Amino acid sequence: MKRVVITGQGTINALGHDVPTTLEAMREGRCGIGDLDIRDVDRLSVKIGAQVRGYDPGALFNRQQIALYDRFTQFTLIASREALAQSGLTFAGQLAARSGVVLGTAGGGVNTWDENYRSVYEEGKNRVHPFVVPKLMNNAAASHVSMEWNLKGPSFSVATACASSNHAMGQAFNLIRSGMCDVMVTGGSEAMLTFGGVKAWEGLRVMSKDACRPFSATRNGMVQGEGAAVFVFEERDHAMKRGAEILAEVVGFAMTSDAADIVMPSAQGAERAITGALRDASLNPEDVGYINAHGTGTAANDKVECAAVAHAFGRHANDLMISSTKSMHGHLIGGTGAVELLACIMALKDGVIAPTIGYEEPDPECALDVVPNEAREAKVTAVLSNAFAFGGLNAVLALRAV
Amino acid sequence: MSSIKDRVIAIIAEQAVLEVSDVKLEATLVDLGIDSLGLVESIFAIEEAFDIQIPFNANEPDQGDFDISSVAAIVAAVTALVNEQKPG
After folding, report:
1. What span, in angstroms and rounded, lies between the C-alpha atoms of A386 and A294?
2. What residues of B are in contact with residue A205 (Cβ under 8 Å)?
3. A331 catalytic, yes or no?
4. Average pLDDT over chain A, rounded to whole?
5. Is the dihedral angle over the CA atoms A166, A171, A175, A181 positive or is it negative?
6. Chain A residues with CB inside 8 Å of B58's CB?
7. H, E, C per residue of chain A
């Protein structure tokens, strides 16, 4: 089997418009959550979110592009530009044919749906812009990435709610590992902070109205975020031959299904994904120094996740660090695993563990080292990234330092 | 028009797939087999039926002003909200 390394990363999210700014915010434990600035916010009962601020699409895309790019596609392209530039790769001939794109998104072009439903239902218009369909489709972002960088191999999008990005990166990993591809651009994006997007979540009664406080006894729900993160996964020999800077190695991936409940998580399903990723990576539990948690800040997720980790790691669960960066960048739904992988790479490469901010009070049901409120310096050689989706779909990635 | 109590019980009975006569005032939602998703759906149905806003967060069901400890408690809480949020 081929080995897979990461040779580029890019992002835009509530913490920053690129990787360095985002990592600095994570190191400082800065919170990207604030008052939502969206149309009809007064009709929402949840009025906070981790929005991308100070963002001017007109400065980065021309008018024709904006007519075709939903916000989630714009975010993807911005993150891709940073990641591809770092990798130093260009694609032609055989390499182009053996390279592709797999991206996660849960909702795709939610802004486009929202705006056009308003136009036909609320304003009674009988005509919509000709590009509504190519703009809103879930695979639009993956397709535009393939076009911008001439990636002619396998490209597709993955939608598994909150696990979309991890499932996508798992596919990218396996496409390279199996020898089918040399380079895969992967990660995910979400732009669901619209009136309809927030209203839908509001209905489920799991959202916090004030803050995201994962693992804290005082937690009272999740907070939505938006943005994208994109990575360049590359076959290791290919990267070594061209002398590329290697950020980390992807060593394992596992996915499981709870087959139980459409919203309530299962500790067994999560645990099977965690142990599966360790096995796939040939890692012992003691090798893992850090886990980027799914850590949504809901009552149910955090206690189930801690139980799963405790069970999967046994005594070592007390020695490892586990933090939820959603406390800072919010829950990016289908894009969340991608932004969270940035924290995993920072842990491996820079020896900095991003904190769980907003932590107020210990919860006996979440009795692990959740790196409360302040980042920590620590040398770790292997990490996991958890994602557990509604629908009981779990996806865990394992990374190792180089 | 039927009383608030009867209408609340009818909504809960429908959610629990029970006869109205089987929904006793002292019963808890667990007794009636209503899980957390069923609870959220019942609250939505009550909000729609009475045109009220119910303060309820599934992460802290025991906190807040809306008491869901029994059918009687829910009827009392809905009655209070209906009076409080009466238009005009």
Report:
1. 5
2. 40, 43, 56-58
3. yes
4. 98
5. negative
6. 204-206, 221, 298-299
7. CCCEEEEEEEEEECCECCHHHHHHHHHHCCCCCEECCCCCHHHCCCCEEECCCCCCHHHHCCHHHHHHCCHHHHHHHHHHHHHHHHHCCCCCHHHHHCEEEEEECCCCCHHHHHHHHHHHHHCCCCCCCCCHHHHHCCCHHHHHHHHHHCCCCCEEEECCHHHHHHHHHHHHHHHHHCCCCCEEEEEEEECCCCHHHHHHHHHCCCECCCCCCCCECCCCCECEECEEEEEEEEEHHHHHHCCCCCCEEEEEEEEEECCCCCCCCCHHHHHHHHHHHHHHCCCCHHHEEEEECCCCCCHHHHHHHHHHHHHHHHHHHHCCEEECCHHHHCECHHHHHHHHHHHHHHHHHHCEECCECCCCCECHHHCCECCECCCEECCCCEEEEEEEECCCEEEEEEEECC
In this predicted structure, the answer to whether residue B36 has a pLDDT above a threshold of 90 is no
Q: Dig out the tokens for A344 from the structure.
A: 């995993």
A261 contact residues in B (CB cutoff 8 A): 37
Nearest-CA distance from B43 to chain A in Å? 10
Give pLDDT tens digits for A267-320. 999 999 999 999 999 999 999 999 999 999 999 999 999 999 999 999 999 999
pLDDT at A176 over 70: yes
- The domains located in chain A, with CATH, are 4-241 (3.40.47.10), 253-400 (3.40.47.10)
Of the candidates A17, A31, A144, A162, the residue annotated as catalytic is A162
Mutate one of A205, A216, A262 to test the B interface: name it (highest B CB count within 10 A): A205
d(CA B47, CA B51): 5
Please tell me the distance in Å from B31's CA to the nearest CA on chain A. Answer: 20
The full set of domains in chain B, from first to last, is 4-84 (1.10.1200.10)
For residue A44, list chain B residues with Cβ-Cβ distance below 8 A: none
Give yes or no for a contact between A102 and A172, defined as CB atoms under 8 angstroms apart.
yes
Q: Is A212 a catalytic residue?
A: no
Residue in B39, B57, B66 to test binding to A, most A beta-carbons within 10 Å: B57
Q: Do A219 and B57 touch (CB under 8 A)?
A: no
Q: What is the mean pLDDT of residues A6-17?
A: 98
Does the pLDDT of residue B1 top 80, yes or no?
no
CB-nearest partner of B60 from A263, A264, A299: A299
Distance from CA of B58 to the nearest CA of A (A): 5
User: Which ipTM value was assigned to this complex?
Assistant: 0.81
Least confident of A142-156, A232-246, B56-70: B56-70
